[in-house]
Design a protein that fits this description.
With 533 residues, the protein is α/β, with parallel strands linked by helices. The protein is 21% helix and 28% strand.
C-alpha cells in the first residue's frame, strides 16, 4: 500500500486549488480523478467569470482551468486520471479503481472535492433520447464541438440554465424557450438579458407537461402552474423541438464523505446532504477535509477559494505552515470568499423570493424577473444608465447586486465607479470624459455595458455592443437592430468592428441606428436574404 502525505479526490477547481496550496507549502500531493482530463467543470466554461481581479474576474473558465493545471504541475502535484475512488476506510485508506484493477493508498490528509451532480425531473417522455442535462449539453459543445440539437428548450433559469442557454445560441442552435416553474428568473439578470435580447422568450411559472416523439424528442408541451404547482387548464403551449435541456439544480456528490464516517446534514439551501465542517473545511473525522460543491453548491470562484483554505489548513496541521502564516493566508482567503457571498445571490439569500429592492433601495425590474429583460421604463432607474450626456459614454444595464467589478478596473478615465463593495451597482460619473476605448464593454462578464454616442444634428446614434457570435459582422454591413426583448425595431448599419487580444474574444461591434432608438437598440442581427424590418 502506497502512502501519500495528502490525497485529493477530484481534480476540479476546488481540488486543484487545495493541491496547489498544500504543495506550495511543501507537502507531497497526489490527486485522483475519475475523468480522462483534469480540470473538472472549468474546461466546459467558456464564459468570463464574475468577481474581482483576485477572483480571476473577466477570465474565461477554461483559461482558469489551464492556469490551475500549470501551477499544480510546476509545484510537483501528481494527477492520476481515469482513477475512480470507490471507498474510504479508517486510517484514511482509500481504494481506487485504475483501469481494470483495484489499488490501495493511504493518506495522512484527505481533501474530498468530488463536486456535484445534475438533478433530474420526471415527466411523460423524459426517457426519450434528446432529454439531457444542461451540463451534458455543455460538455458536448465546449469539449467535443458537437451541437446537442438543433431546436432546444431549456428547463431552468438559474445561472446554469442561462449560461448554457446562451452558449447554445453561440453554437448555432435555436433556443426555442427558457422555461421555469418558479415565478421569477433564478440566475443573474445580466445572464437572462443577453439571452432575451437574442429573441428567446421566457416562460416563468411554467413547467413541462409532456414530451412526445416516436423514438426521440419531437415536440414538448408546457403549461402554466398555480401556487400549488398544478397545471392551470387551458395554458398549455406546444413547441416543435428535438432536444430538452434540464438545468434544475445540482446536488453535492458527498457519498464518499458519508462512507468515511463524517457527520452529515441535509441542508436544502446548500443543495442537499453535505458534511458538517469547521471554517477550514475539516470534517468531523480529523484530517479529512471537504472543499467545493461537495460541501455546498456555490460558484466555481467560491469553490477555488474553499479549496485553498482546506489546502492551507492541512499544511498547517502537518507542520508545513506556521500559525502566523496560516492565519494571514486564511484571513486573505476568507475576505475574498466573503466578497463573493455578498449581495442578493449569496448563499444565505438562496430561495428567497421576497427581495424587491437593491441594496441601494432601487426597485428591481419586474419585467426582468418575469421575462428576462428590463423594460424601457425600468432601465432609467439604475445609476449606470445616464441620458443626455454629450459625446460618447457608457450605459451600464446592471440592475442587481452581483459580486463583480471589472468595469471599474477597466475604466482608466474613472467614468465608472463601484467602490470597495463589489456588489454595489456601478455608477456612471457624468463629469468624467469617456475615451471610447470600449474596455469596459469587453471586460463586463455579464455583457451588460454599451457605449452610446448620439448625433442629434444628423439624427442617428452609434451603439457599441459586446458581440460573441459567428460570423462576425463587417464594417459597412447592414442588418437589423433588436431591443432588450429581442424584438426587431429598426435597420442598423455596422460602422466599426474592433477586436484585440486584450478583449479575449469579446468583439466590439458599433452599429448606427436612428436617434430615437438610442436607448432601445441592444443587439445586431444579420439580415436574412431579402428580409426587411
Amino acid at each position: 500500500m502506497k502512502r501519500f502525505e495528502m490525497i485529493v479526490i477530484g481534480a476540479g477547481p476546488a481540488g486543484l486549488s487545495a493541491a496547489i496550496e498544500a504543495a506550495r507549502a511543501g507537502m507531497e500531493v497526489t490527486v485522483f480523478d475519475e475523468n480522462a482530463k483534469p480540470g473538472g467543470q472549468l474546461f466546459k466554461q467558456i464564459h468570463k467569470f464574475f468577481g474581482s481581479k483576485e477572483h480571476r474576474a473577466k477570465i474565461r473558465g477554461f483559461n482558469i482551468g489551464r492556469e490551475l493545471l500549470e501551477e499544480a504541475q510546476k509545484l510537483g502535484v501528481q494527477v492520476i486520471l481515469n482513477a475512480t475512488v470507490i471507498g474510504i476506510y479508517p486510517g484514511k485508506e482509500i481504494t481506487v479503481m485504475i483501469e481494470d484493477g483495484i489499488q490501495h493508498f493511504r493518506g495522512d490528509y484527505l481533501v474530498i472535492a468530488t463536486g456535484a451532480s445534475e438533478n433530474m425531473v420526471t415527466f411523460p417522455g423524459w426517457t426519450l433520447p434528446g432529454v439531457i442535462g444542461a451540463g451534458a449539453a455543455q460538455t458536448m459543445m465546449n469539449l467535443h464541438g458537437i451541437r446537442p440539437g438543433n431546436k432546444i428548450l431549456m428547463l431552468g433559469t438559474g445561472n446554469v440554465g442561462l449560461v448554457v442557454g446562451f452558449q447554445l445560441l453561440q453554437a448555432g442552435c435555436e433556443l426555442t424557450a427558457m422555461v421555469d416553474a418558479a415565478p421569477r428568473v433564478g440566475g443573474y439578470g445580466v445572464h437572462a438579458s443577453k439571452v432575451a435580447r437574442c429573441g428567446v422568450p421566457f416562460f416563468l411559472s411554467h413547467t413541462i407537461v409532456e414530451v412526445r416523439g416516436q423514438d426521440k424528442v419531437e415536440e414538448v408541451t408546457i403549461g402554466e402552474v398555480d401556487s400549488g404547482w398544478n397545471i392551470i387548464p387551458g395554458t398549455q403551449k406546444t413547441f416543435s423541438v428535438d432536444t430538452i435541456c434540464l438545468a434544475v439544480g445540482l446536488s453535492p456528490m458527498s457519498q464518499l464523505l458519508k462512507i468515511a464516517g463524517c457527520d452529515m446534514t441535509d441542508n436544502p439551501r446548500k443543495g442537499g446532504v453535505i458534511p458538517l465542517t469547521d471554517q477550514y473545511g475539516e470534517t468531523s473525522v480529523k484530517g479529512i477535509y471537504a472543499a467545493g460543491d461537495v460541501s455546498g453548491i456555490e460558484e466555481a470562484s467560491s469553490a477555488m477559494i474553499g479549496g485553498r483554505i482546506a489546502g492551507c489548513a492541512a499544511a498547517k496541521e502537518a507542520g508545513y505552515l506556521t500559525e502566523e502564516i496560516f492565519c494571514t493566508k486564511y484571513e486573505e482567503y476568507e475576505n475574498a470568499l466573503e466578497c463573493l457571498r455578498q449581495g442578493m445571490f449569496g448563499p444565505d439569500m438562496r430561495g428567497r423570493a421576497d427581495i424587491a429592492n437593491t441594496a441601494e433601495g432601487i426597485m428591481l425590474s419586474a419585467t426582468l424577473l418575469k421575462k428576462g429583460y428590463i423594460s424601457n421604463q425600468e432601465i432609467l432607474r439604475y445609476p449606470g444608465v445616464k441620458t443626455g450626456i454629450h459625446g460618447i459614454h457608457p450605459v451600464i444595464e446592471c440592475s442587481q447586486n452581483i459580486p463583480c467589478n471589472p468595469c471599474q478596473d477597466a475604466c482608466v478615465k474613472g467614468c465608472i465607479t463601484i467602490g470597495s463593495n463589489i456588489t454595489a451597482l456601478p455608477v456612471v460619473d457624468e463629469a468624467k470624459l469617456c475615451s471610447g476605448c470600449g474596455m469596459c464593454v469587453a471586460s463586463c462578464s455579464g455583457q451588460a455595458i454599451f457605449l452610446v454616442e448620439e448625433n442629434e444634428a444628423e439624427g442617428y446614434s452609434d451603439i457599441t455592443l459586446p458581440y460573441e457570435f459567428l460570423p462576425l459582422p463587417i464594417k459597412g454591413q447592414s442588418g437589423i437592430a433588436l431591443d432588450r426583448s429581442g424584438a426587431v425595431i429598426c435597420d442598423a448599419q455596422i460602422i466599426k468592428v474592433k477586436s484585440s487580444v486584450a478583449m479575449d474574444h469579446t468583439h466590439l461591434v458599433t452599429m448606427r441606428v436612428p436617434l430615437e432608438m438610442t436607448m432601445q437598440a441592444r443587439f445586431f442581427k444579420h439580415r436574412e436574404e431579402g428580409g426587411t424590418v
